[in-house]
Specification:
- The protein has helices at about 25-50, 55-75, 85-105, 110-130, and strands at about 5-10, 10-15.
- It is mostly helical.
- Strands 1-2 form a two-stranded antiparallel ribbon.
- A hairpin with a 3-residue loop joins β1 and β2 (about 10-15).
């Protein structure tokens, strides 16, 4: 049974089985979910390398689980965050994380230009976090 029905001006009706969190707590939770989703995106992107064209069962299974989890958490974060901001942050975490994981795990190039580009992505993610409405 629904416990809380809240009318949000300009947005609509929010119905929940659980006590309503403050807007600030909801936004903080959404950002945490989004960060986890981005890290899971990094995991599945690296996992694709280990599936060897989906011919290895366990790496393939883990990759699919990470994909599903990443998309699910992104969809939950989108309940409280603007779609443009959330999607950009999700892909940014995934992109930067995948490049870093490639360097650390797969021995990919660590040249200065690549590191500078990762810093620019991270700066954009942090910037979006601070300018996004809560």
């Amino acid at each position: 049974m629904l416990r809380n029905i809240t009318v949000i001006p300009g947005v609509g009706i929010h119905m929940s089985r659980y006590p309503q969190q403050s807007g600030e707590a909801m936004a903080a939770s959404a950002w945490i979910l989004l960060i986890i989703a981005g890290l899971m995106e990094t995991g599945w992107a690296i996992g694709l390398k280990y599936t060897e064209g989906w011919t290895r069962f366990w790496p393939s299974l883990l990759t699919v689980v990470l994909m599903a989890g990443s998309f699910f958490l992104l969809s939950k974060a989108l309940e409280d965050l603007p779609v443009g901001t959330a999607y950009t942050v999700w892909t940014g975490i995934g992109a930067a994380g995948t490049v870093l994981a490639g360097m650390l795990i797969l021995g990919e190039s660590r040249d200065t230009a690549r590191l500078l580009c990762i810093l620019l992505i991270v700066a954009g993610i942090v910037g979006l976090r601070f300018v996004s409405p809560e």
